[in-house]
Amino acid sequence: MTINNISDNKQPASAYDIINIVDKIHRHTFVVIVDNEPGVLARVIGLFAGRGYNIESLSVSPVTQDDSISRINIVTNGTAQTIEQIKSQLDRIVPVHNVYDLTVEGAHVEKELALVKVNAQDHNRRESLRIADIYGARVSDTTLQSFVFLIDGDAEKVDSFINLMRALGDIEIARSGVVAISRGAKIQPVK
Amino acid sequence: MDNQSQTVKSQTMNGAKIIIKALIDQDVDVIFGYPGGAVLPIYDEIFQQNHIRHILVRHEQAAVHAAEGYARSTGKPGVVLVTSGPGATNTVTGLTDALLDSIPIICLTGQVPTHLIGTDGFQECDTTGITRPCTKHNYLVKDANNLAKTLHEAFYVATAGRPGPVVIDIPKDVQFADGIYQQPSNVAHKTYKPKLKPDITKIEQAVMMLAAAKKPIIYAGGGIINSGEKASELLNKFTKLGDFPVTLTLMGLGAFPADQPQYLGMLGMHGTYEANLAMHDCDVMLCIGARFDDRITGRLDAFSPNSKKIHIDIDVSSINKNVAVDLPIIGDCAHALEDMINIWQEKYSHIKHNRLDEWWRVINIWRDKKCLAYNLDSEEIKPQLAIERLYHLTKDRDPLITTEVGQHQMWAAQYFHFQKPNRWMTSGGLGTMGYGLPAAVGAQVAHPDRLVIDISGEASFMMNMQEMATARQFNLPVKIFILNNQYMGMVRQWQELLHGSRYSQSYSETLPDFMKLAESFGWKGVRCNDSKDLDATITEMIDYNGPVICEIAVDKSENCYPMIPSGAGHHEMLLGPVDDGVDAISGKGKALV
User: Fold this and answer.
1) pLDDT for B412-438, tens place per residue?
2) Which of A11, B122, B332, B591 is deepest in the core (most CB within 10 A)?
3) Cα B32 to chain center, whole Å?
């Protein structure tokens, strides 16, 4: 190995080059495994706010039988340098067990869930049911004037469903952030 | 009663007792603190024991700085105890200072009783919320049974890996409540396990790069000092093996002996010409225990453009934060240096020092610029001269030096020289005026027989001068060496360079009479107005067995040089006033701090 190609990462060799990569913004999905203790979410969110990182979406829930561990799913964006920083800054928060950058680690499933309430009459009411059927959305509540549809899927699908519903009547939306998990049989251990 | 329940009973005590016992078991001998309503049970316990000494400061910010001085001069964590509300909020500056300079601090704060939390009770504040971004970690303990475990964990977190401040917020009812005491245990922390041993293949690559380099440089920082005295010895050894030029950051001064020929001085904004040019022109840079701070790099796109960079740091988040590096190595400085020395001795011991002859020849040309020379043909006392004389008259006593922040700090860094670590305490990252006096108090508490000097400016000194009372109360013979130029000198210097010499609010109006001030606090005061009396005044200061204010009336117009103006690169240094010009700092640079 010679000195010239010793660098095994994609970082530029000198500080001059950093400027050139600044403009490329990448979207990354992080999974952060944390102790389920008071304030831990504030530490994670505070890190993003304090260091000027973006949060596109965030969801959190306990994931172990004894509720001692929570999984935070964060979708963020930034330059390659920022993304690397986000990972290492998350990693040094004391109650953080693991940080996985799913975008880097390979194929993964990303899902969102939305509850969409539509007030629609006559033809539009029937149309909303037909569209829901096409999208695989289920009816979770109904009155004579309204439906509440439950839809899940990737963000684009949920967006498109919501836009169609908007055209049919007054709507109200409750939407979760992204939850994500890697594809394949491997189970990520909580270290 | 069976054995087990007897043990449990003997280990059951109230929260305040648990706290003191945990501190004793953690080998704490000094607490810096200030009492108040929400910590009275702890103060009652302090009153009833003789293991831990309590140093009563006069402001909670100073308690943290004193603990920093204690920590930085001993290598042990400093412990702070303050009350809720204002007691806690007053520590915020100190905690942030300790966070940025990686100083291990345990800060215990009182809190209103658990049932009053969230009611805007008297002297209530959201301490864990306020201190979350300015600590390495913090805790709110709501159950006395968790107190001991939390305290022991806090000491681990504060000192392991990259050190930092940890806050433990303890409601008053928890201090009264009974709980079971637990001994410190060796059980590994479940989430926080910093990596100490570096990856050996990467170390091999690093040594290979340094061995092949034509123009290498070692750029070392405070991480060497945090790693312990051994790291400094190893740095010295490795440097000698390869005859590498070494430059140190402000926080790293003392990590390498200043009298060695390999030492190029401090680098960065007010670093030496030779250090900054060597950084700019090098082909392989070993950054160890430093973090490419903006005071170091200057304009990033002009920072050492042609070098391969190796970065050894214990904190992963320091890697590629400001400067992209070619070879990142995660681990403790001492471990890394030990491995590098072994590999060098195994594989590269045949390499001759004369391979760097050309590099040293160029460096010596830069050295010959004598960038720290200053104009002596003035009536007034030059501040640089004052520091130089202070250095020469005290160096045999191996003094501990603290500083405030500003011009005097930079002159101290440039003209006071250190051969060993843990002698130099300054606020580098946060730049906290008012750091020096309380830090000197803390260092003197830890080393009652050493000479401790706070090199100060008249403006910084007044930010925490109430601590003169602390020094008097505990018979701490600290010396304050005030370079009085009647200005906030660094502010004035920037106004001169950037804002057309419009000295907005930077003149120190209505200064007190420092001699009378000293007298009123039970200190000695000495003053010097003439270069001829400088040595005599300094000698009078160091010979006096007690605290002294030594006021040196220095040239009001002197500026810190050399200087990399903001927005400029290492190769664009200003060497002195002759280089001053309207164009010294470009439009963009003016917006930088």
Assistant:
1) 999 999 999 999 999 999 999 999 999
2) B332
3) 18
pLDDT digits (tens, 9 = 90+) for A106-142: 999 999 999 999 999 899 999 999 999 999 999 999 9
Judge whether B590 counts as a catalytic residue: no
First to last CA, chain A: 35
Give the H or E element holding residue A45.
helix A40-50
Q: Is B490 a catalytic residue?
A: yes
**What is the three-class DSSP state of B162?**
coil
Residue B60 near residue B31, CB atoms below 8 Å: no
Q: How far is B193 from chain A (nearest CA, A)?
A: 9
- Token pair 């806050």 in the structure block, residue: B167
Confidence bin at B146 (pLDDT 50/70/90): very high
* Interchain CB contacts (distance < 8 Å): A and B: 83
Summarised one tens digit per residue, pLDDT across range B335-352 is: 999 999 999 999 999 998
How far apart CA B247 and CA B276 sit, in angstroms, is: 9
Nearest CB among A9, A50, A92 relative to B315 is that of A92
Of A9, A15, A92, the CB nearest to B301: A15
Judge: A6–B323 Cβ closer than 8 Å, yes or no: no
What is d(CA B211, CA B209) in angstroms, rounded to the nearest whole number?
A: 5
β-partners of residue B455 are B403, B481
- One of B172, B215, B308, B524 is an active-site residue; which one? B172
Q: Is B410 a catalytic residue?
A: no
Which pLDDT band, with edges at 50, 70 and 90, does B8 fall under? low
* Whether B292 is catalytic: no
B17, B32, B60, B266: the catalytic one is B60
| Distance of alpha carbon B111 from alpha carbon B116, whole angstroms | 9
In three state form, how does the secondary structure of B449-460 look? CCCEEEEEEHHH
